[in-house]
């Protein structure tokens, strides 16, 4: 009689196929490989499988399926809710599948499913080209792209997912498909916004843009000027060209008090003109500190690293605002003053320009009108009272709700935010669920939340 547990059976099978060193059961190597960005995640998968090739990914999907074990996929490990690590499941770990091939003439890169924004930038920047990434270089490009992808070039080139040309995907039955606008177009549509719910994306083909340098940096303003500055921001940004993307929000200043920050990024050819635009934003108040200069994009991707240390404990809430209304600004100011930790903060991703001109039905992404995605980041040290900090994030989200659009950014929605999840895809929800049924009817893949059936 075969008495092997499903976990042991899968581990043995994959060790034989991939090599024993690729299959990590709980133990010292597993403990080294397990941590993700958010130290508050406590999930303990049954095994981690470090894939190198597409055939490895196919083997893991087939083995887990055959033995009835749940799966999850790990890319850059930056999902705050820890969806890369399925408790008791098998992790398809892509963190070594980080190759980036550049076709500079065609302005296309082929990116491994585990590559992070910094990997892609390092490969394309020497060619005078850039890809749409998120704000932070360590975030996985595939995870970011599948759910949306707000970033420093957003007004100019759209979301990261607007720059996806095609993808290779290992489906629930282990088959590899190559999808784009002409091949499996429904799958390609769903991948652009529907998250990792359809298969393991082993590589992306993405558009590159001829941008050799940006002007970027951080401006910190006194907290007392917040209301006036955000008022002025709204008027000024309405006239600004798409070459300018500005992120703004709340951090802690050197004196321990909240401070309003702006992170402008100019990605146009004319740097002198861009500097003039940034000066106008800087002059909205009397900055406490302003460090804005021409820089390579790779440097920009490290600007926030000090704020987002790996392994700290985090919880994120999100609300989309159609406008920075007086009520919304009051709620944000209240939140800044009520922050329970100096490492907590609020980020406003301003979606405008190129991405707003993509018709809603063209991709699964659910919100194409101009908006601010508010990211409320509670952060604390492991020995602190988590509920205090989580309470601040929850209260801030509740305070913003009356001024917010329905839904929220799927990449940041936690599993319990059912009301926001139900609205996150708007008119695209029905088609998204139909594609889920077509490609993963047994629910093998669970990633960022999908609306209920
Ligand atoms: C510090 C920080 C900064 C951020 N900045 C931004 C930002 O500027 N703009 C923005 O839009 N978002 C931002 N995010 C959110 C981020 O886009 C999402 O958390 C994203 O899911 C992270 O992807 P990952 O691969 O790093 O994470 P992981 O935790 O590895 O994966 C996230 C989800 O995607 C799935 N997934 C990952 N790779 C694959 C794959 N190859 N195939 C199938 N499924 C896959 C996973 O299963 C999981 O469900 C930020 C998050 C953090 C923590």
Quickly describe the structure:
The chain is of the alpha+beta class and 453 residues long.
**Beta strand count:** 16
| CATH-derived topology of the largest domain | Vanillyl-alcohol Oxidase, Chain A, domain 3
Number of domains: 3
CATH architecture of the largest domain: 3-Layer(aba) Sandwich
**Strand-residue proportion:** 15-25%
CATH domain class name of the largest domain: Alpha Beta
Give average pLDDT, whole number: 97
Global Rg: 22 Å
The total of helices stands at: 14
- Alpha-carbon distance between the two ends: 41 Å
- The residue ranges in which pLDDT falls below 50 over 5 or more consecutive positions are none
Please provide a written account of the structure:
This protein folds into three domains: 6-93, Uridine Diphospho-n-acetylenolpyruvylglucosamine Reductase, domain 2 (2-Layer Sandwich), CATH 3.30.43; 100-210, Uridine Diphospho-n-acetylenolpyruvylglucosamine Reductase, domain 3; 214-423, Vanillyl-alcohol Oxidase, Chain A, domain 3 (3-Layer(aba) Sandwich). The protein is 29% helix and 23% strand. The chain is built from 14 helices and 16 strands. The protein has helices at 6-18, 28-33, 54-66, 117-124, 141-147, 154-157, 185-191, 226-239, 271-282, 297-300, 326-338, 386-400, 418-423, 429-439; strands at residues 23-24, 47-50, 71-74, 90-93, 100-103, 108-112, 164-170, 176-180, 200-207, 214-221, 244-252, 258-266, 289-295, 313-321, 345-351, 371-380. The strands form three sheets. Strands 13-10-12-11-15-16-14 form a seven-stranded antiparallel β-sheet. A five-stranded antiparallel β-sheet has the order 5-6-9-7-8. The longest helix is centred in the C-terminal third of the chain and has 15 residues, at 386-400. The mean pLDDT is 97. Bound molecules: flavin-adenine dinucleotide. Flavin-adenine dinucleotide (FAD) is lined by residues 36-37, 72-80, 83-84, 94, 113, 134-136, 139-140, 142-144, 146-151, 195-196, 200-201, 308, 411-412, 447-448.
